[in-house]
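Request: Give me one sample?
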Amino acid sequence: MLSTNKIMISKKISTKIAYIAAICAAINIAAITKTPTANAASLSIANAGFEEPIIGEGEFTTNVLPGWTLYDPSNLTSASIGVGEPIYGAYNPTADVYFNEAPEGNNVGYVYLTYPPGSGAVGISQTLTSLLTANTKYTLQVEIANIPPVNGFTILDGFPGYAIQLLAGGTLLTQDFNSLSIIEGAFVTSTISFITSANNPNLGQALEIRLLNILESDGIEINFDNVKLDATPIPEPASILGITFGFVGASLALKKRKMIRQ
């Protein structure tokens, strides 16, 4: 009789432990699921909306864009810049160019290339103060526009193609290489993401953003605006594995209890 009581007490304890394990696992999952959203951070980008410098409607700067530098790996534009031709800068579009003008603020960024298709990619680049961190999801968003041939500027016909790139230490992490179809006079949002592992070789390297005119087809100008980069912590695989084992253990304990009853 005493032995039977001990068995019954042992069963009750096992059942309680199983329930407690299941509840703890559920609490941990809820905490991990909520943590990334709560800790998501917008990383600092200088002149992300191209509002500097302040210029009047319809005006643009010539090869001046605070916070951004020219990216021209094949030195395609050196002669043009040398004689003062516009390659990149800030532009304040009017309503006849874009119905809502700029998506954010007054200005947009531009990359203007009068070279034949296939000449090479040129754009603007910014190296951030933020460093690549392990177990983090990076999400880069950029507004991209196909400028229409307004006011008799038929040279603006066509769309040369674009690339949006996220790098760390000069190494490409991810990109949108001209995947979107953009009608004339419209902005669309390009979104790319990258998740770092715990052993990514570029950890600790400075993040970099590149916005490129790739000269893939007819057309000369690309406009960009409202650049955003968010960093969201993600749970480590070990944490997820521990929760999984917790659930498995709880399930096995409950299953064993049912078998004993039968």
